[in-house]
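Give me structure tokens for this 465-residue protein.
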Amino acid sequence: MKPAFPSGFLWGAATAAYQVEGAAAEDGRSPSIWDVFCHTPGNTLCGDTGDTACDHYHRFPEDVELMRTLGLGAYRFSVSWSRVMPSGTEPINSAGLGFYDKLVDCLCEAGIEPFVTLYHWDLPNALQASSGGWLHADLPRRFADYANVVFDRLGDRVRFWLTINEPWCIVDGGYFTAQHAPGIEDPALGYVAGHNLMRGHAYAVAAYRASRHGTGAISFALNSNFAYPVSDSAAGQAAADRAVEGFAGWFGDPAYRGEYPSVMRARLGNLLPEFSEEDRELLRGSMDYLAVNYYTSDFVRHAVGAGPMEYERIPQPDRLHTETGWAVVPDGLRDLLLWLTKRYPELPVYITENGAAFADTATDDGEVDDQARIAYLRAHLDAASRARAGGVDLRGYFAWSLLDNLEWSHGFSKRFGLIRCDFETLERTIKASGHWYADVIRNARSQNHGIEAGTEQPVRGGVSG
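Here you go.
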């Protein structure tokens, strides 16, 4: 029987700096916008902050050993801009950059591929306070300067890069609803921030490709739901199409074609800023691969006047939901991957986040028999396998997350980890889902005659003009 996943398939898990590192005021690190947001009363559940989090900053050798125990072929982590360049610009903080140097060395020694995200939401607060952060037209160039510092230091060992994690979430949480940092509730400004995030991606990609280590693969992490119509009408299907184009296409189209989707331009008008010709050229073809973060899907109907895109989400109470209130829709992963591959052909695909928060219950010795999470992961890996069978060039899968961590404004109340972290003692315990995932990886490699994941060199995808 042909293996569901090929040899060289990257099996990994993911985290983000502010969610796991801790050491928030150590070795020269400055506050990020998330430090400020979490320390503002009322912004996070129980006032939880990332001051200590999982203490990955001090415990990374232990965590890498746990990765080895799980058999991971790759670890996706993010770099804290505030740790590397505390003011957001020069000078470089050697101690902060040195942490990531040691982490990458430790991963390489363990045979684990480092998969590095440059920006996972934690902008240095100095840049927010001085210039308005991503609302300032010059911030994309500052981001590229920071990216160049990291490329120069880590690029001899890192083959896979992501510039920005989930620009949609940054805009939605940070500017549409104010549920995330920087906590601004102004949709018009959100579109400006989203525009500059994509410009920052483009400038960082150009910097990487011009750098001395720029021979790997670079992209950004695109999160999206798929959308299904709740009726068979033409209007219902059109509404579902708009929902996906306005979610995945909002940021995918600029990075592939250099422009926003035509349906968004037609309906949003001047709310969407215009890219300069220089920016269009830098954006076009700026994904070497598709990095997809998927958790759930939507069921929608056409709704006149419901925002410029004129659709509304319809609750699905009969479906299983995770602790974050998201419906479990594994087929949405398959359908989203097929949609993305059709819209952005010739690009390899990596699922860079997929996972679920459930109400884990630990025994007295910390063991967690999280069968609901196993069922979620199994169903989504099956959907990913069916997407491959349908023609998606899927090359890797990263479970979110390696560890239970600070789940942003939810604080420590939502646990996504394959590994339990006791937030009082910081003791780590591999959950049943972690052992199950290790078996999946081991069996996949066995079917491929023991060929280790991560042996293939990254290949840049093509792009149509």
